[in-house]
Amino acid sequence: MSSFTNPSPVEQRDAQKFGDSPERVRETDHYEQEYIEQFVDRWDRLIDWEAREKAEGDFFIKLLHQHGAKSVLDVATGTGFHSVRLLREGFDVVSVDGSPNMLARAFKNARERDLLMRTVHADWRFLNRDVHGEFDAVICLGNSFTHLFREQDRRKALAEYYAVLKHNGVLILDHRNYDRLLEGNSKSGKSNVYCGKDVEVGPEHVDDGLARFRYAFSDGSTYHLNMFPLRHGYVRRLMREVGFQRINTFGDYQQGHDDPDFYVHVAEKEYRFDTDMTEI
Known about the structure:
seven-stranded mixed beta sheet
């Protein structure tokens, strides 16, 4: 039983709007309505920047250095955790998000750390319309790719990532282990990505087309996100079909981890004559 209190009347008035049948809300464009200002104000409590930095260490920084990346497009900036880390490390970063509330919070977080963040409000499906230039790396982290509900949208977004990369660029994309969730083997939503102590996270509904998560904070406020449950092999297949060549997958920042909380896919754009495109 949850030890948290029920949402206050004020929070109820500020609640996200999913309608009378929230489990039927399976639209890519709905995410902007889900990241309302009150939820975004609490997002950093869910992440816990200090704990998350300790959990992932310098995994992404090392990956980017290994691939010779200097310019990075962070397409799922959120409240700015990875953009800030990379700016501190000297990377040239452009920060993108589809939620203006998230971008505003990210910019504020960067300024509080004496950093100036270059932000762009953009839809991934039309990324190259709003973001100009080419980058050594694109990062799409924080389970963000699951906000795309149609396969056509997922393919279009991956194609936009591919197009904005330099000829030898790399895409780094993560997502929850939805395979485990779909098979009924996971009840908790906490992981080494969501490290906050004063929030309970868990799935309320899961089927092949929807994973609906509940986020209950210690102040009594409760929010939800509707996401598409991406299977590990499916994501790798889409990446190959869009044109990415070699794909290396990590589980909880390690290779060979069979049942992680999160998968991280590292997809290379550079054309390789010896790559077998039939492999998944």
